[in-house]
Amino acid sequence: MKVDWIGPEAEVRLTWAGLMAALEAGHQRPRAEIADLFLYRGADTLLDRGAWIDGIGALVKVGTIVPGNA
């Protein structure tokens, strides 16, 4: 898999106004259907969050909380 990186030459084209416009446009789109799943083992927790937006796509994010690793 090849990952394309945006280099520093693109920075001059990125503006705060453009970022705000993109955020505003994103909030005009359909709301995501979101569901969470928590799995517990003692003090440890596994969190799965799935999101689906019609016409755009789906995403699953996974995180762990393991106090013993602190």
Task: Give a short overview.
The chain is built from one helix and three strands, in the order αβββ.
Structural class: alpha+beta
Tell me the helix content: 10-25%
Q: What is the count of structural domains?
A: 1
Instruction: Give the overall average pLDDT.
Output: 92
The strand count comes to 3
Q: Given the C-alpha coordinates, what overall shape results?
A: extended
The strand order across the widest sheet is 1-2-3
Describe the fold and architecture:
The protein is 17% helix and 40% strand. With 70 residues, the protein is of the alpha+beta class. The protein has one domain (8-69). A 3-stranded antiparallel beta sheet has the order 1-2-3, with no helix packed on it. A hairpin with a 2-residue loop joins strand 1 (33-41) and strand 2. The chain is extended and about 50 Å long. It starts with 15 loop residues before the first helix and ends in a 5-residue tail after the last strand.
What layout of secondary structure does this protein have?
Layout: H1 16-27, E1 33-41, E2 44-53, E3 57-65
Antiparallel strand pairs: 1-2, 2-3
Task: List descriptors.
70 residues, alpha+beta, 3-stranded antiparallel β-sheet, 3 strands, 17% helix
